[in-house]
Amino acid sequence: MPRSSLITLTCALAAGASAFSYGAAAPQSSQEKQFSQEFRDGYSILKHYGGNGPYSERASYGVARDPPTGCEVDQVIMIKRHGERYPSPSAGQGIEESLAKVYSINTTEYKGDLAFLNDWTYYVPNECYYNAETTSGPYAGLLDAYTQGTEYRARYGHLWDGESVVPFFSSGYGRVIGTARKFGEGFFGYNYSTNAALNIISESEVQGADSLTPSCDTDNDQTTCDNLTSLMPQFKIAAARLNAQNPGMNLTETDVYHLMVMASYELNARPFSNWINAFTQDEWVSFGYVEDLNYYYCAGPGDKNMAAVGAVYANASLTLLNQGPKKAGSLFFNFAHDTNITPILAALGVLIPDEDLPLDRIPFGNPYTTGNIVPQGGHLTIERLSCQATALSDEGTFVRLVLNEAVLPFNACQSGPGYSCPLANYTSILNKDLPDYTTTCNVSSSYPQHLSFWWNYNTTTELNYRTKPIACQEGEAMD
């Protein structure tokens, strides 16, 4: 559901409107189409820059986002990536080196696809902005977090009594903590300062399994991850085109990759990027696939250890689901990084290609498209549904996965209302399939062996607001 329509839909439902009309109003004349025949999502740049650029909702399978008829959500477990940000320092170094080539030529007027450079300036004011969440423009990261908080209050507000203190959880990284706070302000509104309790979980390796960011200290071949920018011939073609239009730049395929990275991040800070139009749609499709490969082989199911890493969260959330809201609580909001979400999906066995992604071609129809999985601000929500008996299923408790606001049916089980999975079946499948994290990743016996902070949390509000200045290129933070 588009963000702007959630409150409108809520009001419409209160007025007795249809719960799911697919957005089609009654035709105004006998010649007006009820449904548009154009589907242009595949042409959107928002689906072809991997995890670098602004949030967009996942392309849906057409399953209704609202709870199925006769069902009510009674528990929510969400993990959200931090909001839109500036490039990392390492990405910034590559960008600046490639920009230096662009600006090295002796010209007073750029030509062709780079003509806009006569008026363009780099959107990162200085090196201290690298790593930071963006605060300007319509795609700003802090705005993303606050907006989703308000939407989830509209959707899940019935799970909070308006009086109790609710803990929520952030990994210990500056921009992640900022996202958690803004989401909290959006969800709790006027009561954020008194009824929300931010718990910050260190990203240190010594946290072991009691972490939102578990690591895996085993040897793993990173050759594929280190050689991705040379795979796509479109990057060479783009370099040749830009060099021909502006002689003397001598851009390489790697430079083109860096410049496309820069373009995809620019939208996080500005409403428009001319750099995006400097590259063709085919070049962006290739760039998106390189990003898919990066996540698949380096932080997803193509890495033999990632399912075990994701099993930490999958297994602990399974315990919450089985304990239910009366024993465990109803709201579990968590905040971390993109590479903490992709292992969870691997552990759950969803969006796994039938075979490893090829390195010599694009397998169109590939389910592992990161623009749909972990854009900036991307999030995975697990819903526990309490359902009445229907013609499809008996009364009971069901589980539903929602990725970036699109229902993601669980591969091995979809027999419940709205393609949900009976909790008992979900439990049986995960108990059978989840690998052991501590064994696979050689976790020291002196480190925590399981996730416990969802049950052992603080209820103070001391960390709800920052009290110190933000450090230059801040990373790890615990305040």
Describe the structure.
The structure is a single chain. The chain is an alpha/beta fold and 479 residues long. It has a single domain (69-440), classed as 3-Layer(aba) Sandwich (Rossmann fold). It is 35% helix and 10% strand. The chain is built from 15 helices and eight strands. Strands 1, 2, 3, 4, 5, 6, 7 and 8 form an eight-stranded mixed beta sheet that branches. Helix 2 (89-103) crosses helix 8, helix 7 (233-245) packs across helix 8 (253-269) and helix 11 (306-328) packs across helix 12 (338-348). It is globular, with a radius of gyration of 23 Å. The two termini are 34 Å apart. Mean pLDDT is 92; it is low at 1-23.
H/I helix tally: 15
What share of residues are in beta strands?
5-15%
Termini separation: 34 Å
User: Secondary-structure element order, as H and E?
Assistant: HEHHEHHEHHHHHHEHHEEEEHH
Structural class: alpha/beta
The CATH superfamily bears the name: Phosphoglycerate mutase-like
| Main sheet: strands, sense, barrel | 8 strands, mixed
Shape: globular
Q: What number of domains?
A: 1
Report the average pLDDT across residues. 92
- Helical content stands at 25-40%
Number of strands: 8
Examine the coordinates and then state which fold CATH places here, giving the name of the CATH topology: Rossmann fold
CATH architecture annotation: 3-Layer(aba) Sandwich
CATH top level label:
Alpha Beta
CA-atom Rg in angstroms: 23 Å
